[in-house]
Amino acid sequence: MSADAARMAVAPRVAIAIVNWRNAADTIACLESLQHLADPDVAVTVCDNGSGDGSVEKLADWAQGALAQSGRTFRVLQESDLGDAAPRDYLTIIASQRNLGFAGGNNLCIRLALADQGIEAVWLLNNDTEVLADSLQALRARLAEDPQMGICGSTLVYHHDKTTVQAVAGRYDIARGSGGEIGQGLTLATLPPRDQVEAQMSYPPGASMLASRRFIDAVGLMEESYFLYFEEIDWTLRGKPRFTVGWAPGSVVFHKEGGSIGTNARGRPSDLSLYYNLVNRVRVARRFQPAAVPLIVARLAAIGARYLLKGDSRAARIVVHALSDFRSGRYRTGAWLSASRTARQIQKKN
Protein backbone atom coordinates (compact mmCIF):
# COMPACT_ATOMS: atom_id res chain seq x y z
CA MET A 1 0.00 0.00 0.00
CA SER A 2 1.39 3.44 -0.93
CA ALA A 3 1.87 6.15 1.71
CA ASP A 4 -1.04 8.14 0.24
CA ALA A 5 -3.30 5.09 0.20
CA ALA A 6 -2.35 4.30 3.79
CA ARG A 7 -3.32 7.84 4.81
CA MET A 8 -6.70 7.43 3.17
CA ALA A 9 -7.31 4.14 4.99
CA VAL A 10 -7.61 6.03 8.29
CA ALA A 11 -11.25 6.45 9.33
CA PRO A 12 -12.27 10.13 9.46
CA ARG A 13 -12.64 11.65 12.91
CA VAL A 14 -12.95 15.31 11.86
CA ALA A 15 -15.20 16.65 9.10
CA ILE A 16 -14.28 19.86 7.32
CA ALA A 17 -17.19 22.03 6.13
CA ILE A 18 -16.71 24.65 3.41
CA VAL A 19 -19.38 26.77 1.71
CA ASN A 20 -18.81 28.02 -1.83
CA TRP A 21 -20.76 30.75 -3.57
CA ARG A 22 -19.52 31.85 -6.98
CA ASN A 23 -15.89 31.63 -5.92
CA ALA A 24 -14.56 28.29 -7.10
CA ALA A 25 -11.01 29.64 -7.51
CA ASP A 26 -10.67 30.49 -3.81
CA THR A 27 -12.38 27.25 -2.79
CA ILE A 28 -9.92 25.23 -4.87
CA ALA A 29 -6.98 27.11 -3.31
CA CYS A 30 -8.42 26.24 0.13
CA LEU A 31 -8.81 22.58 -0.85
CA GLU A 32 -5.25 22.48 -2.14
CA SER A 33 -3.94 23.78 1.18
CA LEU A 34 -5.91 21.06 2.98
CA GLN A 35 -3.99 18.41 1.03
CA HIS A 36 -0.97 19.16 3.21
CA LEU A 37 -2.68 18.77 6.60
CA ALA A 38 -0.81 16.64 9.08
CA ASP A 39 -4.15 15.06 10.06
CA PRO A 40 -4.98 12.04 7.88
CA ASP A 41 -8.35 11.34 9.53
CA VAL A 42 -10.45 14.02 7.85
CA ALA A 43 -13.39 14.08 5.46
CA VAL A 44 -14.06 17.28 3.51
CA THR A 45 -17.48 18.52 2.38
CA VAL A 46 -18.04 21.53 0.14
CA CYS A 47 -21.56 22.89 -0.21
CA ASP A 48 -22.03 24.94 -3.36
CA ASN A 49 -24.75 27.42 -2.45
CA GLY A 50 -26.62 27.49 -5.75
CA SER A 51 -23.87 29.45 -7.50
CA GLY A 52 -25.21 28.78 -10.98
CA ASP A 53 -21.86 29.77 -12.49
CA GLY A 54 -20.31 26.37 -13.13
CA SER A 55 -18.69 26.20 -9.69
CA VAL A 56 -19.72 22.56 -9.12
CA GLU A 57 -18.18 21.52 -12.44
CA LYS A 58 -14.98 23.45 -11.71
CA LEU A 59 -14.65 21.83 -8.29
CA ALA A 60 -15.30 18.38 -9.73
CA ASP A 61 -12.74 18.94 -12.50
CA TRP A 62 -10.15 19.93 -9.91
CA ALA A 63 -10.93 16.89 -7.78
CA GLN A 64 -10.75 14.58 -10.79
CA GLY A 65 -7.17 15.67 -11.34
CA ALA A 66 -5.65 16.66 -8.01
CA LEU A 67 -7.31 14.05 -5.79
CA ALA A 68 -6.84 11.18 -8.25
CA GLN A 69 -3.09 11.70 -8.09
CA SER A 70 -3.10 11.09 -4.33
CA GLY A 71 -5.55 8.19 -4.36
CA ARG A 72 -8.27 10.23 -2.68
CA THR A 73 -11.87 9.80 -3.80
CA PHE A 74 -14.69 12.30 -4.26
CA ARG A 75 -18.33 12.42 -5.24
CA VAL A 76 -20.94 15.01 -6.16
CA LEU A 77 -24.32 14.83 -4.44
CA GLN A 78 -27.47 16.81 -5.12
CA GLU A 79 -29.06 18.32 -2.02
CA SER A 80 -32.07 16.06 -2.59
CA ASP A 81 -29.83 12.96 -2.55
CA LEU A 82 -28.37 13.51 0.92
CA GLY A 83 -30.84 11.45 2.95
CA ASP A 84 -28.83 9.38 5.44
CA ALA A 85 -25.65 9.53 3.34
CA ALA A 86 -22.38 9.54 5.28
CA PRO A 87 -19.05 11.03 4.14
CA ARG A 88 -17.53 7.82 2.74
CA ASP A 89 -15.24 9.74 0.33
CA TYR A 90 -12.41 12.12 1.16
CA LEU A 91 -14.31 14.95 -0.59
CA THR A 92 -18.05 15.35 -1.04
CA ILE A 93 -19.40 18.22 -3.12
CA ILE A 94 -23.02 19.06 -2.34
CA ALA A 95 -24.79 20.87 -5.17
CA SER A 96 -27.53 22.95 -3.57
CA GLN A 97 -30.05 24.52 -5.92
CA ARG A 98 -30.52 27.50 -3.59
CA ASN A 99 -28.36 30.01 -1.78
CA LEU A 100 -28.89 28.82 1.79
CA GLY A 101 -26.62 31.41 3.39
CA PHE A 102 -23.57 30.76 5.54
CA ALA A 103 -25.40 28.77 8.21
CA GLY A 104 -27.63 26.87 5.80
CA GLY A 105 -24.73 25.75 3.64
CA ASN A 106 -22.67 24.72 6.66
CA ASN A 107 -25.64 22.88 8.14
CA LEU A 108 -25.88 20.66 5.06
CA CYS A 109 -22.21 19.79 5.53
CA ILE A 110 -22.70 19.17 9.25
CA ARG A 111 -25.71 16.90 8.71
CA LEU A 112 -23.72 14.83 6.24
CA ALA A 113 -20.75 14.66 8.62
CA LEU A 114 -22.72 13.59 11.69
CA ALA A 115 -24.35 10.74 9.78
CA ASP A 116 -20.97 9.07 10.41
CA GLN A 117 -20.91 8.16 14.11
CA GLY A 118 -17.10 8.24 14.05
CA ILE A 119 -16.96 11.98 13.43
CA GLU A 120 -15.96 13.71 16.67
CA ALA A 121 -15.82 17.33 15.50
CA VAL A 122 -16.57 19.57 12.52
CA TRP A 123 -14.15 22.24 11.31
CA LEU A 124 -16.08 25.12 9.73
CA LEU A 125 -13.70 26.82 7.34
CA ASN A 126 -14.33 29.76 5.03
CA ASN A 127 -13.69 29.03 1.38
CA ASP A 128 -11.45 32.11 1.11
CA THR A 129 -8.91 30.72 3.60
CA GLU A 130 -5.72 28.70 3.29
CA VAL A 131 -4.29 26.61 6.12
CA LEU A 132 -0.97 25.31 7.37
CA ALA A 133 -0.13 21.66 7.95
CA ASP A 134 -0.72 21.96 11.71
CA SER A 135 -3.71 24.35 11.68
CA LEU A 136 -6.19 21.59 12.51
CA GLN A 137 -3.84 19.78 14.91
CA ALA A 138 -3.65 22.88 17.11
CA LEU A 139 -7.44 23.25 17.16
CA ARG A 140 -7.94 19.62 18.11
CA ALA A 141 -5.33 19.80 20.86
CA ARG A 142 -6.92 22.89 22.44
CA LEU A 143 -10.43 21.42 22.26
CA ALA A 144 -9.20 18.22 23.89
CA GLU A 145 -7.62 20.15 26.79
CA ASP A 146 -10.94 21.38 28.16
CA PRO A 147 -13.96 19.03 28.31
CA GLN A 148 -16.29 22.03 28.77
CA MET A 149 -15.14 23.71 25.54
CA GLY A 150 -17.62 23.40 22.67
CA ILE A 151 -16.02 25.53 19.96
CA CYS A 152 -12.41 26.56 19.37
CA GLY A 153 -11.20 29.25 16.98
CA SER A 154 -8.00 29.92 15.07
CA THR A 155 -5.59 32.81 14.64
CA LEU A 156 -6.73 34.53 11.45
CA VAL A 157 -3.94 36.23 9.49
CA TYR A 158 -4.43 38.43 6.44
CA HIS A 159 -3.73 36.48 3.27
CA HIS A 160 -2.31 39.57 1.55
CA ASP A 161 0.00 40.31 4.52
CA LYS A 162 1.01 37.09 6.22
CA THR A 163 2.65 38.95 9.12
CA THR A 164 -0.46 40.79 10.32
CA VAL A 165 -3.29 39.31 12.39
CA GLN A 166 -6.89 39.91 11.36
CA ALA A 167 -8.44 38.42 14.53
CA VAL A 168 -7.91 35.81 17.21
CA ALA A 169 -11.41 36.10 18.69
CA GLY A 170 -14.50 38.27 18.68
CA ARG A 171 -15.91 40.47 21.41
CA TYR A 172 -19.57 41.50 21.33
CA ASP A 173 -21.81 43.48 23.67
CA ILE A 174 -25.44 42.65 22.91
CA ALA A 175 -26.76 45.49 25.05
CA ARG A 176 -24.91 48.07 22.94
CA GLY A 177 -25.09 46.22 19.63
CA SER A 178 -21.38 46.68 19.09
CA GLY A 179 -18.20 44.67 19.20
CA GLY A 180 -14.83 44.14 17.61
CA GLU A 181 -12.09 41.73 16.71
CA ILE A 182 -9.51 40.90 19.37
CA GLY A 183 -5.93 40.96 18.13
CA GLN A 184 -6.53 42.85 14.90
CA GLY A 185 -3.34 44.52 13.63
CA LEU A 186 -0.97 42.53 15.86
CA THR A 187 1.72 40.23 14.54
CA LEU A 188 2.16 36.54 15.27
CA ALA A 189 5.11 37.47 17.47
CA THR A 190 3.07 39.91 19.59
CA LEU A 191 -0.05 37.85 20.31
CA PRO A 192 -1.47 38.23 23.83
CA PRO A 193 -1.54 35.25 26.23
CA ARG A 194 -4.24 32.66 25.55
CA ASP A 195 -5.95 33.00 28.92
CA GLN A 196 -6.16 36.77 28.49
CA VAL A 197 -7.91 36.39 25.14
CA GLU A 198 -10.27 33.66 26.29
CA ALA A 199 -11.30 35.72 29.34
CA GLN A 200 -12.75 38.42 27.10
CA MET A 201 -13.81 36.56 23.94
CA SER A 202 -17.50 36.28 23.10
CA TYR A 203 -17.15 34.00 20.08
CA PRO A 204 -14.52 32.48 17.79
CA PRO A 205 -13.89 33.95 14.32
CA GLY A 206 -16.41 32.32 11.99
CA ALA A 207 -13.84 31.87 9.23
CA SER A 208 -12.23 28.99 11.15
CA MET A 209 -13.80 27.23 14.12
CA LEU A 210 -13.82 23.65 15.31
CA ALA A 211 -17.08 22.52 16.94
CA SER A 212 -17.22 19.29 18.91
CA ARG A 213 -19.89 16.70 18.20
CA ARG A 214 -20.96 16.95 21.86
CA PHE A 215 -21.63 20.65 21.36
CA ILE A 216 -23.58 20.19 18.13
CA ASP A 217 -25.64 17.31 19.53
CA ALA A 218 -26.57 19.35 22.61
CA VAL A 219 -27.06 22.81 21.09
CA GLY A 220 -28.22 21.97 17.58
CA LEU A 221 -27.23 23.24 14.15
CA MET A 222 -26.45 26.85 13.28
CA GLU A 223 -29.40 29.24 13.14
CA GLU A 224 -30.22 29.73 9.45
CA SER A 225 -32.49 32.76 9.77
CA TYR A 226 -29.48 35.10 10.06
CA PHE A 227 -28.38 34.08 6.52
CA LEU A 228 -25.08 35.95 6.94
CA TYR A 229 -23.26 37.17 10.10
CA PHE A 230 -24.03 36.61 13.80
CA GLU A 231 -24.41 32.84 13.37
CA GLU A 232 -21.33 32.12 15.49
CA ILE A 233 -22.50 34.58 18.18
CA ASP A 234 -25.91 32.91 18.28
CA TRP A 235 -24.34 29.43 18.38
CA THR A 236 -22.03 30.41 21.22
CA LEU A 237 -24.79 32.04 23.27
CA ARG A 238 -27.06 29.02 22.87
CA GLY A 239 -24.29 26.82 24.22
CA LYS A 240 -23.80 28.82 27.42
CA PRO A 241 -23.31 28.13 30.25
CA ARG A 242 -22.80 24.44 29.53
CA PHE A 243 -20.13 25.06 26.91
CA THR A 244 -17.27 27.54 26.71
CA VAL A 245 -15.36 28.81 23.69
CA GLY A 246 -11.60 28.86 23.23
CA TRP A 247 -8.69 29.94 21.07
CA ALA A 248 -5.83 27.87 19.65
CA PRO A 249 -2.99 30.37 19.08
CA GLY A 250 -0.99 27.88 16.99
CA SER A 251 -3.83 27.29 14.55
CA VAL A 252 -2.84 29.86 11.93
CA VAL A 253 -5.26 30.36 9.04
CA PHE A 254 -4.74 32.86 6.21
CA HIS A 255 -7.94 34.73 5.33
CA LYS A 256 -8.68 36.66 2.16
CA GLU A 257 -11.34 38.60 4.08
CA GLY A 258 -14.75 38.82 2.50
CA GLY A 259 -13.84 37.39 -0.89
CA SER A 260 -17.23 35.74 -1.36
CA ILE A 261 -19.41 38.74 -0.54
CA GLY A 262 -17.38 41.62 -1.90
CA THR A 263 -16.45 43.37 1.30
CA ASN A 264 -13.33 44.07 3.35
CA ALA A 265 -12.14 46.14 6.25
CA ARG A 266 -10.72 48.94 4.08
CA GLY A 267 -13.92 50.40 2.65
CA ARG A 268 -17.70 50.58 2.93
CA PRO A 269 -19.13 47.06 3.17
CA SER A 270 -20.99 45.64 0.20
CA ASP A 271 -24.76 46.16 0.20
CA LEU A 272 -25.30 42.51 1.15
CA SER A 273 -22.78 42.71 3.98
CA LEU A 274 -24.11 46.00 5.32
CA TYR A 275 -27.73 44.85 5.33
CA TYR A 276 -27.17 41.60 7.21
CA ASN A 277 -24.70 43.12 9.65
CA LEU A 278 -27.29 45.72 10.64
CA VAL A 279 -30.50 43.71 10.70
CA ASN A 280 -28.91 40.83 12.58
CA ARG A 281 -27.69 43.11 15.36
CA VAL A 282 -31.32 43.67 16.27
CA ARG A 283 -32.33 40.05 15.71
CA VAL A 284 -29.68 38.64 18.03
CA ALA A 285 -30.64 41.19 20.70
CA ARG A 286 -34.31 40.30 20.44
CA ARG A 287 -33.44 36.65 20.96
CA PHE A 288 -31.00 36.98 23.86
CA GLN A 289 -31.53 40.44 25.41
CA PRO A 290 -34.86 41.97 24.31
CA ALA A 291 -34.53 45.00 26.57
CA ALA A 292 -31.62 46.20 24.42
CA VAL A 293 -33.64 46.38 21.19
CA PRO A 294 -34.79 50.06 21.44
CA LEU A 295 -31.23 51.29 21.97
CA ILE A 296 -29.88 49.26 19.06
CA VAL A 297 -32.66 50.47 16.76
CA ALA A 298 -31.72 54.05 17.68
CA ARG A 299 -28.05 53.32 16.95
CA LEU A 300 -28.93 51.92 13.52
CA ALA A 301 -31.01 55.02 12.76
CA ALA A 302 -27.97 57.15 13.65
CA ILE A 303 -25.81 55.05 11.30
CA GLY A 304 -28.30 55.69 8.49
CA ALA A 305 -28.21 59.43 9.18
CA ARG A 306 -24.40 59.45 9.02
CA TYR A 307 -24.44 57.69 5.64
CA LEU A 308 -26.93 60.25 4.39
CA LEU A 309 -24.71 63.12 5.54
CA LYS A 310 -21.79 61.53 3.70
CA GLY A 311 -23.83 61.47 0.52
CA ASP A 312 -24.19 57.68 0.41
CA SER A 313 -27.94 57.55 -0.09
CA ARG A 314 -27.81 53.89 -1.13
CA ALA A 315 -26.27 52.87 2.21
CA ALA A 316 -28.82 55.02 4.05
CA ARG A 317 -31.59 53.23 2.15
CA ILE A 318 -30.14 49.86 3.17
CA VAL A 319 -30.31 50.93 6.83
CA VAL A 320 -33.99 51.79 6.31
CA HIS A 321 -34.52 48.35 4.71
CA ALA A 322 -32.88 46.69 7.72
CA LEU A 323 -35.02 48.53 10.26
CA SER A 324 -38.20 48.06 8.25
CA ASP A 325 -37.58 44.36 7.77
CA PHE A 326 -36.90 43.84 11.45
CA ARG A 327 -40.16 45.56 12.40
CA SER A 328 -42.23 43.63 9.84
CA GLY A 329 -40.55 40.27 10.38
CA ARG A 330 -39.38 39.98 6.79
CA TYR A 331 -36.42 37.75 6.00
CA ARG A 332 -34.45 38.58 2.87
CA THR A 333 -32.24 36.02 1.18
CA GLY A 334 -29.64 36.02 -1.58
CA ALA A 335 -30.58 38.84 -3.95
CA TRP A 336 -32.02 40.64 -0.97
CA LEU A 337 -33.08 43.75 -2.85
CA SER A 338 -35.72 41.76 -4.71
CA ALA A 339 -36.54 38.74 -2.54
CA SER A 340 -38.12 38.55 0.89
CA ARG A 341 -40.06 36.10 2.98
CA THR A 342 -41.47 36.34 6.47
CA ALA A 343 -39.54 34.78 9.30
CA ARG A 344 -42.63 32.70 10.11
CA GLN A 345 -42.59 31.19 6.60
CA ILE A 346 -38.95 30.24 7.02
CA GLN A 347 -39.58 28.58 10.37
CA LYS A 348 -42.58 26.64 9.00
CA LYS A 349 -40.49 25.36 6.11
CA ASN A 350 -37.64 24.23 8.36
UniProtKB/TrEMBL annotation:
Pfam families: Glycos_transf_2 (PF00535)
Keywords recorded for this protein, A-Z: Glycosyltransferase, Transferase
GO terms for MF: transferase activity
Keyword Transferase annotated: yes
Domain Glycosyltransferase 2-like: start-end pairs: 23-162
The keyword Membrane is assigned to this record: no
PANTHER family: GALACTOFURANOSYLTRANSFERASE GLFT2, RHAMNOSYLTRANSFERASE WBBL
Homology family: Belongs to the glycosyltransferase 2 family.
Descriptive protein name: Glycosyl transferase family 2
Source species: Blastomonas aquatica
